Each structure stands twice: as C-alpha cells, then as structure tokens.
Amino acid sequence: MFKALSISGLCPFRMVVPSLKLQDLIEEIRGAKTQAQEREVIQKECAHIRASFRDGDPLDRHRQLAKLLYVHMLGYPAHFGQMECLKLIASSRFTDKRVGYLGAMLLLDERQDAHLLITNSIKNDLSQGIQAVQGLALCTLSTMGSAEMCRDLATEVEKLLLLPSSYVRKKAILTAVHMIRKVPELSNIFLPPCAQLLHERHHGILLGTVTLITELCERSPAALKHFRKVVPQLVQILRTLVTTGYSTEHSISGVSDPFLQVQILRLLRILGRNHEESSETMNDLLAQVATNTDTSRNAGNAVLFETVLTIMDIRSVPGLRVLAVNILGRFLLNNDKNIRYVALTSLLRMVQSDHSAVQRHRPTVVECLRDPDASLSRRALELSLALVNSSNVRAMTQELQSFLESCPPDLRADCASGILLAAERFAPTKRWHIDTILRVLTTAGTYVRDDAVANLTQLIAGAQELHAYSVRCLYSALAEDISQQPLVQVAAWCIGEYGDLLLEGSCEETEPLQVEEEEVLALLEKVLQSHMSLPATRGYALTALMKLSTRLRGGSDRIRQVVSIFGSCLDVELQQRAVEYNTLFRKYDHMRAAILEKMPLVERGGPQVDGEAEESKETQCSETALVSTESQASKLLDLLDLLDGTTEDAQPSPSLDPSPRGTLVHLLDLPCAPPPPPSIPDLRAFEREGLQLSLSFVRPPGTPALLLITVTATNTSGADVTHFICQAAVPKSFQLQLQAPSGNTVPAQGGLPVTQLLRILNPNKAPLRLKLRLTYNHFGRSVQEIFEVNNLPVETWQ
To answer: Are 387 and 359 a contacting pair, CB within 8 Å?
Structure first.
C-alpha cells in the first residue's frame, strides 16, 4: 500500500534516475535526432557527474571523469572536472591514474594555475619503478608541461634517459625534446646522455635521440659545437641504413627506415652548415644516398628531397650540387603534383647559387607553366622569371607572353609585371623593348603595374629614332582596342607628342600606313566618349587633342569645340584642364605653340643627378631673389592679370620681353621659396634576404608638428617580393595617417622601389616611437615581420 501511494504521487518521495554508463551515454548522444536533444542528454548527465563528484565516491570517480572527457571532446564545457583529475592522479590505483592523467592532458594547460598542483604527483610517479605509471607521467609532462614544471622535473627526466627499459627511455627522450623547446637553457643537462643513446639499436630510442640532438643544436651554439664531433658516427649509422638495412619491420616500400633517414639528414644539414670539415665528412655519403635510393615510391622521394636540401645547405662540392639539381629536375617529370611543387620551390631557392645548373631544366619548367593546377603554374611562373637572363631573354619572353595570353586571371598581374621587369633589365635593343611592352599592354593592359605607363613613355621619348615607329604601332593598336587603359594612355600620349610623324607616312620599319587628320581626331574623340575610359585616360586624350592643335594643319576648330564641351565635366580634374585649355585658345593663342611643345627627355636620375638638380634650383632661386625688386603682392597681381586680363585696380607691370616666350618667363618668375629646413638623416629600419626598408623624413616649415615619413622598400635579391603590405602604429598621443603605397610588388635585382607616405602629427613634441608590421611573399614563402623603430633621429620630434 505504501509503494502504491508513493508511485501515485501522494507521497513526497520521487524516483531518482540512475547515471548512465559511458557506453550507454555514447549511444544515447549518437541517437539524438536534433541538437536540442543532444544538449538535453548532456545537461542531465553533467548534473549526475557533478552530484557524484560532490558525494566523493572514490570507486566511481574515474568512471564519471571518463564520461566527462567524452563530453569535453564533443565541445561542451567540462572545467569542473579539473580538480577531480588531480585527485585521481594522486590515487594509488592504476585505473584512477590512467584516467586522471588523460584528463589532465585534455582539461589542463598553462593558462590554468591548477596544472602546477600535479608537479609533485608527477615527480613521485617518475621515481617509482612501475613502467606504466612512469609512461603516463612522462606523456602528461610532454603534453602540457609548462616552463616551471620543466625546470622542476628536468633532473628526474634526465635520470630516466639511461634506464634499461626501452619503453621508459623512449618516452623520456620525447619529454626532453619538449623541455628543450620550452626552456632552452636546460640544454646542458641533456648533453651527456645523448652521446650514449646514439649507440642504441632500438628504433624508437635512436629516432628520438636524433630528434633531441636536432633541437639542442638549433637552440644552443655550444651544443652545435659539441655534437659536430659525432658527425662520423651519424654518417656510419646512415650508411648502414642505406647499404645493409636496419630492420625489416621499419622498412617502407623497400626503403630502409625512411623516417630515421630523414631525421639524420636534417641533423647532418644543421651540423654541416658553414663548417668545412663536417661537410667534407658527409659528401661521399650524400652522393651514395642520392644515387642508391629508389625513386619509384614516395618514401624514397622523401629521402631524396631531404638529401637535396642537405647538399644545398652544407659546403658541398660543385659536382654534388649539380647532382642535387638534377634530382629536382627528375622530380619535375613525376606524375605526382606534390613532388613537382616541391621541386619547383626548391629550384627557386637554388637559382641564385646554382643558376647555370638550374638553367638546364628550363624547358621542363616552362612546360609546368601550363599545368592546370594553379599552385604549380604560379611556382613555375616565379621560377621562369628568375631564370631570365641576357642570353635567353628573347626565348623566355616569348614563352611568357604566350603563357600570358591564356593564363588564369589571378596570375596575369604577376606574369605581366615579371615580363616588364625582365625586359627592362635585359632588353637587347630599344625596339625589342618597346615591342615587348606593347604586346604586354595589348594582351593584359589592365593587369600591369601603375608605373608601366610612365616607363614606356620615358622609353619612347628617349629613343628618338623610333618615334615614328612607336606612334604608328600605338595608333594601330589603339584603333583595334580601346579597352586596355594603360595602352590607351600611352597611345594618346604618343599621338599627342608625335602626331606629325604619324601623318607623314614615311617609316621604313613598318608597313605603309596612310592616316588622315580626321581619323586621328575621331579616334581620340572616341576615347573621350567611351564609357570604358577612366578619368586619367580622358585626361591623356584631352591633352593629346590639345597638342595636335599645334601639330596638324587643320582641325583646330574641331579640337576647340571638343575641349569646350569638357569645360562642364563632372570630373574636377578634367573640368579644370578643359577650362585652362579654353583660356589658352581664347586669350593666349599666340603662346599656344610654345606651351604645347614636345616634352623634353627626363632622365632617370640617381642621387647624384637629384643633388645636382637641387643645387641648380637653389642657385636659380637665389639669383632670382637678388635680381627681383618687386614685392610679392605685385608679382601675384601680375600673375592674376596674365590669367584674367587687366583690372581697374592694378596696372600690369611693363614686360621686359614682348615675345610670347618672354611672357612665359614672367609667368614662371614666382617669388623664391624660403630656404629649406636642415635635412633629417635617413634611417635603415629593416633588412632581410635582400629586402631593405629605409625611412626618410621631412618636416614642413609651416606645420612643425607634422612629420612626413617616406617608407622606401627595395629588393636586391633574385626573386620579386609580392603582396607587400606595410602597416604602422604610433602611441595614442600621436595621429597617424597612411597613404596608399605605390605598389605591392618590390621587383628583384634593384628594380623600381615601392614607396609609401606616413603623415604623423605630434602636437606635444613627444619622443616618437614607431612600430611597423610587414607582410609579404618571398622565395615562395609567406613572411610576417613585426618590429619597433626606436632609434629615430631627434630631429623628427624636436
């Protein structure tokens, strides 16, 4: 009767649902049809687990923690089980220790202070003679051991390295590797045992020992010097692996223990780097490995690739380096895309040191350009551009131009820029250089760099014998296609400068071309009216029309009408230019021919030329200041009178020269600027693998709180620096404004630098601190550098 009342709810007793076993919990969670059902099951079970932890049942604690670890693996919070892990680790039962150590590896890390509480438990377990318990403690220490724990337990781990049990020694070696990575100053503790461990025949112990020595050599110069004495022993171990084999159970696809071979080769690469004696000891062995390793399986290719890297890093003989390049050449013929990618990346790193050896595989590299895999074709493009020199520039440029016509859009910018840089560096003749740039602009004009237009116009202006040829080629290209904006800009500039040569019809280097004035004007008007034309392109076309007004016999009225239309253009730059040209037509038609003369040749000046130009400018300014006796206001009235006509209030000053050219001199005869402030010395802020970053400073006289910093990136290496981004940060008391950079590719071999302007406002004149972050791709690697510039000149803020 009492039981019936309880079930019917008349009694306050309620039935307690028992906790699930781990297997039942897994089945119920997997059987949940919705995420809400899964959360409900886990919440109920977590409540049971908490209750069990509170009750403190020692026999059931490891089962509850095992369920909690499964819940943690599903992504649900399980932090309330951290202290239970410590209790289980301190238990004397192995079943409790096993689950406790597993929970510590999953639930604890350096961010929780609780991980320090298990240090004593691990120390006690390491000193016990039970191998299974020692293995658990070592695995936990190597997984989540912090620097403090490593310092406290390094002595215990060092004692375990020489125990007779191979099971414990193997785990102790891996724990020592973790300790060296966490605390490099512990290297001296593990130096003596390593020499003894190299004599072991156990695979796991020998592999772990080589890994431990590698970590020691990478982090300690003293360890590197110490272990160079064991190079002959390592060479003998590797020779035994190659010739007689180590053990059949560790062979993969006929290659004897490839993992151990690869690890020994990596260690030899570190020990032989910049060391003649060690390199000479391993030369014969590397040749033997390179010639005897089977390349039909991936394991053999892995060993060969590590051999190649070792040969290229140490001071090997030239014949061995050629053998390494030939191995990479064979990799290029492999059907596996990963192997071909690795070969292209390695050849790209070696092209500077062994250029002639890499050149032998140029046809294979060019074939990789057309691989459908995007990463392979990009690597092949970078390597092809690095292989271009003065002897093969014609053939390589032809191949690259053929690839440019069919390459994916994401590669066109890099390909076009690379061709232009190669043509600029190795062009055999000016005509070939012009033809190459024209073909690139015709094929992928919208993908070229911003300075391509300026470079080509300067090249054409400097080749006086090719003016007629250039203007005819550009006119024909423009008549066929006006969508490529850089091509249209260059063509409009060239037609405006040398339109008279286009109409003469006398050019021996091209086919006879009869062009009428009306056709030229109609083509430029078409450019002005096209919806594809950018504002800058319309500016080029408008200026070209204006210049043609002095070079053509007729058509001035038509040109004047077109120019007047753009006087009401929405674009401010075009509107201003059109208004000025209209004023030139209406009021100063007698000066039009002088103002619209052909552009003089502007040489690319280095620092010396720039310095001479500055000296000349300062001299002219000083002479003008001495000769001039008029006030600045009077000269300003003269300038306004010249542009707007005579006024009633101010009479124009008498002209010293009645000729139009003399009037132009008065227009340019402005007051001399005050002497510039003392210059601030430039600063070299960064240098790595040929990439250099320098800072130049200017403080405008009118605003002393403003500092202008020009960041200039140059590249003297053999590969372009692509996707270059420079970011800056200053303290909160400063105001920083970053202008857009001139480009995102720093050309190789000292090409045109990339510049970026930083405007920093320092109202409090506080000492300037500048932090820079550089991200870029170089030699096929993505690089990020963050550094602070603290040695800025005091003139930048005082």
So the answer is: yes
pLDDT tens for residues 718-729? Answer: 788 888 999 898
- Cα gap 403→589, rounded to integer Å: 51
H-assigned helices in 535-571: 535-551, 556-565
Tokens 């090997």 belong to which residue? Answer: 316
Through-space distance between the first and last CA atoms of the chain, rounded to whole angstroms: 98
pLDDT for residue 624 is more than 70 = no
Structure tokens at 240: 């035994």
Token pair 């074939």: residue: 367
Residue with tokens 């040209």, as numbered in its chain: 581
Pairing of strands 683-688, 722-729: unpaired
Tell which residue, 699, 695, 700, 715, has the closest CA to residue 757: 695
- pLDDT tier, 101 (very low <50, low <70, confident <90, very high otherwise): very high
Q: CA quadruple 465, 467, 470, 473: dihedral positive or negative?
A: negative
The three state secondary structure string of 667-690 is HHCCCCCCCCCCCCCCEEEEEECC
Residue that has been written with the tokens 């202290």 in this structure: 83
> What whole-number percentage of the chain has pLDDT above 90?
26
**Interhelix angle 203-219/166-182, nearest 10 degrees:** 20
Widest CA span in the chain: 132
- If DSSP codes are grouped into helix, strand and coil, which group holds residue 756? strand
Are 58 and 91 in contact by the 8 Å Cβ rule? The answer is yes
Report the candidate in 545, 554, 535, 551 with the shortest Cα–Cα distance to residue 581: 545
Token duo for residue 611: 């310095």
For residue range 174-208, list pLDDT tens digits in order: 999 999 999 889 888 898 888 888 888 888 899 99
Average pLDDT, rounded, for the chain: 82
773, β-bridge pairs: 727, 786
Sole residue written with tokens 């024909």: 476
The secondary structure of 70-120 as a DSSP string is HHHHTT---GGGHHHHHHHHTSS-HHHHHHHHHHHHHH--TTSGGGGGGHH
β-bridge mates for residue 694, sequence order = 684, 712
List all residues 6 or more positions away from 310 whose beta carbon is below 8 Å from its beta carbon: 265, 266, 268, 269, 272, 282, 286
Contact predicate 386/422, CB 8 Å: no
Rounded to the nearest 5 degrees, what angle is found at the Cα of 656, between the Cα atoms of 651 and 659? 105
Nearest C-alpha neighbor of 677 from the set 707, 696, 701, 695: 701
Query: Which residue, among 609, 502, 498, has the nearest Cα to 550 in the 3D structure?
Result: 498
Neighbours of 307 (CB within 10 A): 27
Reading phi first (left if > 0) and then psi (alpha if -120 to 50, else beta), residue 212 is in alpha
Q: Residue 768 in contact with residue 758, Cβ under 8 Å?
A: no
Mean pLDDT value of segment 353-362: 87
Output Rg (C-alpha) for the chain, integer angstroms: 38
What domains are there in the chain, each with its CATH number? 683-796 (2.60.40.1230)
**Residue 37, SS3?**
helix
Q: How many beta carbons lie within 10 A of that of residue 1, not counting itself?
A: 5
Question: Around Cβ 745, how many Cβ atoms within 10 Å?
Answer: 22
**Structure-block tokens of residue 355:** 């250029």
Distance CA 17, CA 38 (A): 18
Instruction: Calculate the alpha carbon distances from 394 to 388, 401, 429, 442, 548 in Å.
Output: 9, 11, 11, 18, 36
Local confidence band at 506 (pLDDT 50, 70, 90 cut-offs): low
674 has a pLDDT exceeding 60:
no
Question: 792, 613, 569: which is closest to 699 by C-alpha?
Answer: 792
pTM above 0.85, yes or no: no
Q: Which letter does DSSP use for residue 767 in this model?
A: P
Contact (Cβ atoms closer than 8 angstroms) between residue 358 and residue 392: no
Residue type, 45: E
- Dihedral of alpha carbons 120, 125, 126, 127, sign: positive
User: What is the residue type of 204?
Assistant: G
